Amino acid sequence: MPLAQKKSGLLLVKLTPMGSAVPLPMCYVTIVLCKGSRPAPRKKYLLRQRGIRMDQIQAEIEAIRTQLEALRHERDTLSNQEVQPENNSPKAIAAAYRHQARVAAEVSAEVQGIDNAIAALQAQLEQKQQQLQPLAKPKQALTLADEVEIATQQAYDHANRINELATELVEELRALKSIANDMSTSYWQLHHKPFITGFKGTSVPYLRADQGVLMIGKVII
């Protein structure tokens, strides 16, 4: 049954399996043996070879993904280098920015090389994934109950995420409103206009569950 948790005044919906867990249908492999083909040991051999090939391709895919992650991390590091003067003196600041300008071209070339490598590896990853698809075992068709259960879980996952974002948004809006209330008088005296308007009637949507029915509510700011 659905569970609910309170967080910052919002109802966070959590879905748990209703009753006993419904196992996913088992996979099966269909091999058509034509007349004159080899007996059952050959079929087992083909299945084993297919499994070995799938493991090899999956290992290659994981290696490509690992390399892509390393390249993206390296790119972020190169792109986000900050200017760090030795001290706050004008001379040190000028020297630091001049040095940054000198190395910018080299960094730009290296980043371009990383981008090219990422593009090549991404293309290789897609190719390996396409190779893996024909080897995957076909699955039995899902029953109506399976489809509803999967869709329900996906809906509750989205509801949970929406409520998490709603909680953060409510906190940020209330913090902004508090600042606006504290400085509104001073801001008006200085600029002769309001600092911020539109809080009246402002609300944030969230979701709650009632006897298995998801309902959209709202929190007034």
Percent of residues in helices comes to: 55-70%
Q: How far is the first residue's CA from the last residue's CA?
A: 31 Å
Low-pLDDT runs of 5+ residues are 1-40
Tell me the Rg in angstroms.
29 Å
- What percentage of amino acids are in beta strands? 5-15%
Number of helices: 3
Order of helices and strands: EEHHHEE
Overall 3D shape = flat
Strand arrangement, largest sheet? 1-2
Strand count, sense and barrel status of the largest sheet are:
2 strands, antiparallel
Secondary structure category: mainly alpha
Number of strands: 4
What is the residue-mean pLDDT, rounded to a whole number? 75
Structural descriptors:
mainly alpha, flat, 3 helices, two-stranded antiparallel ribbon, about 220 residues
Characterise the protein shown here.
The protein is mainly alpha-helical. The protein is 59% helix and 12% strand. It is built from three helices and four strands, in the order E-E-H-H-H-E-E. It has helices spanning 40-79, 90-132, 144-191; strands at 3-7, 10-14, 203-210, 213-220. It has a two-stranded antiparallel sheet. A two-stranded antiparallel sheet has the order 3-4. Strand 3 (203-210) and strand 4 form a beta hairpin. Helix 1 (40-79) packs antiparallel against helix 2 (90-132). The longest helix is centred in the last third of the chain and has 48 residues, at 144-191. Residues 1-40 have low confidence and may be disordered.
